[in-house]
Amino acid sequence: MQEPQLLQEEKVFKDPVHRYVHVREKLIWDLINSREFQRLRRIKQLGTSFLTFHGGEHSRFNHSLGVYEIMRRILETFEGRANLTREERLLCMCSALLHDVGHGPFSHSFEKVFRFHHEDWTKKILLGDTEINRILRTMGDHFPQSVAEVIDKTYENKLIISLISSQIDADRMDYLLRDAYYTGVNYGNFDIERILRVMRPHEDGAVIKYSGMHAVEDYIMSRYQMYWQVYFHPVTRSAEVVLCKIFLRAKHLYQQGYLFTVEPKHFLPFFQDRITIKDYLALDEAIAFYYLHQWGEEEDPILSDLCNRFIDRNLFKYVEFNPRHYRELEEIKQLMREAGIDPAYYVEVDSTSDLPYDFYRPGEEERIPIMLLMPSGQLQELSTKSEIVESISGKRRFDHKLYIPLDRIMALPQNLSLKIRERLGVMEDV
């Protein structure tokens, strides 16, 4: 590996969450200025949440800088405590910076329709014919592969993996604080200064001094609240449902030979399932919004209606739904068909679930638990010492909602509208 170069003068980014993001290494500065990383300015961090929390317009770009900054500070805390080489320290910072570089527009909605994962595209960008790959290879031909392995959680050093991907890592700490700041809620706030002060390196992963247990409890409860109050907000989920239906309809029309008013050339590789890195990087949310506006004027009534709903925030309404009630769901779909409303695009059951904290159980999928460093020097799993964490450990919470265009149902002839609303348990507009 070549000796990493330092900038002649430290660069800083003013940041509302961490106050400043500090950059000393030329490699990090070059990666930030690469075209693939700059693209993250045009990808929102919270997907469709801006339709629920109007301040949630921040990007994957500033989140990635924040994860890098937390990692840099962790490494400062580990100075003299962790046996990390200079290359491994640089590997930690590069992995933190680049962990989200493979995200597409609207993130998870996009992935769901076109059936891929952003982690796979992150690896392709790291290892493919990209500016990021060329920059990373200045540290050695093996270096891009090492970064990909850290992000893929296959790297040999478990400590490094835990810093970027565990139940208390640089990624989670930044997105909780950042998302809370931009959405204007208090749920995601926790004492990151305290957590960084009590974090210690261990061969199997970062651990927390026992004296810092209460700060970690606060962090876990913050994560729990953010998921149910922000990430799983039903209006946000409704927007995701509508967006997914838009992409599905556009893809279906293309496969049927429909002639779009404006050829959706940026989407064609996705419709054809032949996506190159160049194709993937050419599509961001600015481009996607252009097509949403164009499709809102298409002759196809379903595509145009869905696009205008998303753009104008005329989203689907929701009712609580028991997923065991399959017969009721089929009855609702049949009534919608009789009303001339295609249930494939206007009826959706959306399920969310979250596991706020869990620990490894022999024979199950490996999890990286949070370990406490006791005064005796022994390690104890967090839930064995914290009554708060023990009470929620391994307890997965589920939520199921049925999304429908209630405005169209209310506009139907009274007898048909009443039948559908009786099945839904909704007797008036909500």
Topology:
Blueprint: E1 6-15, E2 19-25, H1 26-32, H2 35-38, H3 60-78, H4 86-98, H5 108-114, H6 118-127, H7 131-136, H8 143-151, H9 158-164, H10 170-183, H11 192-198, E3 199-200, E4 207-209, H12 213-231, H13 234-255, H14 268-271, H15 277-282, H16 285-295, H17 301-312, E5 317-320, H18 326-338, H19 343-346, E6 348-354, E7 371-373, E8 379-381, H20 387-392, E9 397-404, H21 406-410, H22 414-424
Parallel strand pairs: 4-7
Antiparallel strand pairs: 1-2, 3-4, 5-9, 6-9, 7-8
Helix pairs in contact: 3-4, 3-10, 4-8, 4-9, 5-13, 6-8, 10-12, 13-17, 18-22
Question: What labels describe this entry?
Answer:
430 residues, alpha+beta, four-stranded mixed sheet, three-stranded antiparallel sheet, 22 helices, 9 strands, globular
Largest sheet: 4 strands, mixed
Uncertain residue segments: 360-365
Q: Mean pLDDT score, rounded?
A: 93
End-to-end Cα distance: 62 Å
Report Rg.
24 Å
How much of the sequence lies in strands comes to 5-15%
Structural class: alpha+beta
Can you tell me the overall shape? globular
- The number of strands is 9
What does this structure look like?
This protein has 22 helices and nine strands. The chain has 430 residues and is of the alpha+beta class. It has a four-stranded mixed β-sheet. Strands 5-9-6 form a three-stranded antiparallel β-sheet. A two-stranded antiparallel ribbon has the order 1-2. Strand 7 and strand 8 form a beta hairpin. Helix 6 runs antiparallel to helix 8 and helix 13 packs antiparallel against helix 17. The radius of gyration is 24 Å and the shape is globular. About 1% of the residues have low confidence.
